[in-house]
Specification:
Radius of gyration of chain B: 17 Å
Oligomer: heterodimer
Strand content of chain A: 15-25%
Distance between the termini of chain A: 123 Å
Strand order of the largest sheet of chain A: 15-16-14-17
Strand order of the largest sheet of chain B: 1-2-5
Largest interface: A-B, 54 and 46 residues
Chain lengths: 547, 66
């Protein structure tokens, strides 16, 4: 970008802080001064900037060192490089690695300057070097292409050989029953000592057993109906046994001829069943096709003939379980092998498990219900009321029952019966401590008690009050601060032809006088008789022990 | 000529050159920055030396426009 004189004036005026006219005047003065001095043969130096001189009738400028360094700040400090020394170092390194040093001219070394990248290259030699470098690269690529082509050509003949061997030279007859395998191969490339292995196509991706074949342990034969795996060692054994059997048969025949006896019957013909024929057949059809096998035989037998002894054993056995040869059948749909069947749980087993758990749960539930009913019944009967909520004072019945039986000292003086009891006990009720003293019972109505009343009249809702003998419960309807009020209430209750009792009790360090209706032997009975009370006593009461 | 103006004169030119601009001053010439590529040269000993690149200030005398 070029900055014209006008722009320069603007910038200068902004720097100075004056008008452009004034700066222009100052600038012209400076320029004229420089030119004068230079024309006079002198130099005009501006400190920190440079020196103006005249060289060949032209104005020249040489910048100061500081100004030059400031401009060259990017590359300041970079020393020149000794090319020979650098080359020697490179040669040493290549020599250590065993590589030949590259033959390069001195001008071949090019250090790319990023700042210059993209700029027009003024140096003509660099252009030549670049073109030569490109040409070298092209030359290097050529042999790689030719080599790849040669490698491809070499691979084709091997593929052709494998195809031919595979297709034409093999004849396979397989006996699915006995597991016999006859292989007639006229192959040329026999590698292993024990077996003849046909190498499949190298690039045959569809053949999943290509890798297996390479190992040489198993030979895979392609059949029209399917692929059957068979170890050739077993096939060899089968062949040997067959030969032995034939030899034995021939020997027997010869002996029979010598002796003049009839020759032994020939062995039963072997039914050759192809693998493909097994597919889709039921078990019955298979049995008809195949002679029975000994139950222990799980692998495919190598012998082509069925051993007569094995047949006899099988026929004698009553329970013949057909076990099709597992390895001979290559039926992906037939997954029901003996092993798999054993592994599968029977449906009945699962049901049994479920039923047993249900029975257990039902038994537990029944036991719980029985316990709850027994508890409920016992609670209702009132044999030993363990807990009871009292509407007044929050005192539980159990707390009251815990009070031990008090000693009684009856001193009857005719009309009055006074019971003195000297037992004090602390009972905690909802965190508060209560001291329960023995209540002093004073019957309201004094009656001559010449003779002890019968037991039937001791307890009840109506009638006269009876002496407190033993454990006595009553239906408490009032709790009053003094006895006189209690007596008044009791008289009102007595007017209703109900048995009334006034009992003294202490709660929270306070003495109260409780007015109770009736006398009962058990808590449950008292609670049951609440319904017989008239209002308002029926709705506001609580049974409690008073003795 | 006062030094203040000279300082301002030089500072403006310096800044513009650092920015890579070419400053044209009528009556004097044009100031610009020029890049010099690395060059190989021979020393008196006969050794070849590779000089690093550098930026330098170049002044060209330009006739004033009338």
């Amino acid at each position: 970008m070029k900055i014209s004189n006008a722009d320069f004036l603007k910038l200068l005026s902004e720097e100075i802080g004056q008008n452009e006219k004034i700066t222009g005047i100052h600038l012209l003065g400076l320029i004229s001064e420089i030119n004068q001095k230079v024309d006079d043969g002198e130099e005009y130096n501006i400190a920190g900037f440079g020196t103006f001189t005249k060289v060949k009738s032209l104005l020249a400028f040489t910048p100061d060192d500081g100004f030059a360094k400031e401009i060259n700040y990017k590359y300041e400090g970079m020393p020149p490089i000794d090319v020979d020394a650098a080359k020697a170092v490179v040669d040493e390194e290549t020599g250590k690695q065993g590589l030949k040093p590259a033959k390069t001219r001195k001008t071949d070394t090019i250090i790319v300057d990023e700042a210059v990248a993209g700029e027009p290259d003024e140096n003509p030699t660099s252009k030549k070097l670049a073109s030569e470098a490109v040409a070298k690269k092209d030359q290097k690529q050529i042999p790689m292409d030719t080599i790849s082509k040669d490698s491809e050509k070499k691979e084709t003949p091997s593929e052709n050989v494998s195809k031919e061997n595979q297709a034409s030279d093999l004849k396979v007859d397989m006996d699915a029953v006995t597991g016999a395998l006859e292989i007639n191969s006229s192959k040329k490339d026999v590698n292993s000592d024990e077996s003849t292995i046909i190498k499949p196509q190298k690039k045959d991706i569809s053949d999943p057993f290509a890798e297996v074949i390479k190992s040489g342990s198993i030979s895979i034969l392609n059949n029209e109906d399917g692929i059957v795996e068979q170890s050739l060692s077993e096939a060899k054994r089968a062949r040997e046994e067959k030969d032995k059997a034939e030899a034995a048969r021939l020997a027997a025949l010869a002996e029979s001829l010598k002796k003049g006896t009839p020759p032994p019957p020939p062995p039963s013909p072997v039914k050759k069943v192809k693998v493909g024929a097994i597919k889709g057949k039921t078990q019955r059809e298979f049995i008809e096709m195949v002679p029975p096998q000994p139950p222990a035989a799980t692998e495919i037998e190598a012998s082509s003939e069925v051993h007569p002894k094995a047949e006899s054993k099988v026929s004698e056995s009553s329970n013949y379980d057909f076990q099709p040869p597992q390895e001979s059948i290559d039926d992906s749909a037939s997954d029901l092998t003996t092993e798999s069947v054993k592994e599968r749980p029977l449906p009945g087993d699962r049901r049994k498990d479920k039923s047993s758990t249900g029975i257990m749960l039902a038994a537990v539930a029944v036991v719980l219900i029985a316990i709850l009913t027994w508890w409920f019944i016992t609670d209702r009967s009132g044999v030993e009321p363990t807990s009871g909520e009292l509407p007044v004072a929050g005192i539980s019945q159990s707390m009251i029952d815990e009070v031990p039986q008090m000693e009684e000292s009856a001193s009857g003086t005719g009309d009055e019966i006074v019971f003195e009891q000297d037992i004090a006990q602390e009972i905690e009720i909802d965190g508060a401590s209560i001291t329960v003293e023995e209540p002093t019972i004073e019957p309201v109505r004094s009656q001559p008690s010449t003779a002890t009343s019968p037991s039937s009249n001791r307890f009840g809702l109506r009638g006269d009050t009876q002496p407190m003998d033993g454990r006595v419960f009553s239906i408490i309807v009032h709790s009053l601060p003094n006895r006189s009020e209690g007596n008044l209430q009791c008289n009102e209750i007595a007017a209703l032809d109900l048995r009334c009792v006034v009992v003294e009790a202490t709660a929270n360090d306070q003495t109260t006088f409780r007015v109770g209706i009736g006398q009962f032997q058990t808590y449950a009975e008292a609670q049951r008789r609440v319904n017989d009370l008239p209002e308002p006593y029926r709705s506001r009461n609580f049974p409690a022990r008073i003795n | 000529m006062n030094r203040v103006f000279e300082k301002a004169f030089t500072s403006v030119i310096r800044i513009q050159i650092l920015h890579g601009h070419t400053v044209i001053v009528d009556g004097l010439g044009a100031f610009k920055m020029e890049h010099v590529k690395q060059q190989s040269s021979r020393v008196k000993d006969g050794k070849s030396v590779l000089n690093p690149p550098k930026d330098k200030v170049v002044f060209r005398n330009v006739e004033t426009k009338k």
